[in-house]
Amino acid sequence: MRAITYAEALREALAEEMRRDERVFVFGEDVELGYAFTVCKGLIDEFGPERVRDTPICEQTIVGIAVGSSMIGMRPVPEIEFCDLLTLCMDQICNEAAKLRYMSGGQVCFPLVVRSPAGKWGSFGAQHSQTLDAWFMHVPGLKVAVPATPYDAKGLLKSAIRDDNPVLFIERKLLYQIPGPVPEGEYLVPLGQAKIHREGKDATVVAIGRMVSLALNASETLEKEGIKATILDPRTLVPLDRESILASVRETHRVVIVEEGCKTGGVGGEIAAVVSEEALDDLDAPIRRVAALDTPVPFNAALEDFVLPSEERIIQAVRDVVSF
User: Fold this and answer.
1) Which residues are identified as catalytic?
2) Alpha helices by DSSP H, 115-241
3) Which single residue of 113, 117, 236, 246 has CA 20 to 30 Å from 283?
4) What is the C-alpha separation between 102 and 275, in angstroms, rounded?
């Protein structure tokens, strides 16, 4: 199977869906030239400025246009260059896109996908390095996808574009140039279906986004110590594949949850609550969470690495639950 990068996989998904459905269009800051991490690069050559359109720096307006155009039957895929800037359009996302289908009694659909990169890029500072998955997981009416591989990036984005509900599609900057196997033909990855990357009997590591690759590296080190861990990627946070998480925990009896966002109020807390409520009797050790420290992400590279999760912290957390 050929290997393409995460960014190329996303671009293929956009192009295929734009060919399949003329209602799909992309817009945002610098999408015509694909400046922001190159995902939209070249799309304008095939689809023209009517369907690939630059906007001014106006995140509120970008998402507002997406809400309005989806309401009249279009399928917009706006790009917000950094997920930190989603804070500027919280009203459009959380009060409008997420609620209007419910408030209209289901009479109107809002099939929009807001794409945005999150997490570390490398000394981008506190306002361009955040991971805000948990903020949107908390809002009823939104779906939240966080792909970790090129295969999932393409398949999940195609499913998100075909969904009749608003989807926050939160990508990872450090994954954009990472290649991985992606089939040539048509395929979809369903929203709400977790993936097990590696099977083990001693602990379950639930890893999200870029943390999947760190967890896989950590599992190789742990295996040399005789510890075999299952690496499970939820792939979507809403809907969350609770059944797969619980099934794995019931086999391994220990769980570590790894996310790039802050620990307090994070995704890991929600998953830990699900495990505690549904599988407490199956646990042989307290649940451990590995997350960013509760502080803005520093500009200084050494401090940035200190704040964010690392393979070493994942390894230690798994050792802790196994030896408990």
Assistant:
1) 128
2) 133-137, 150-162, 211-224
3) 236
4) 29
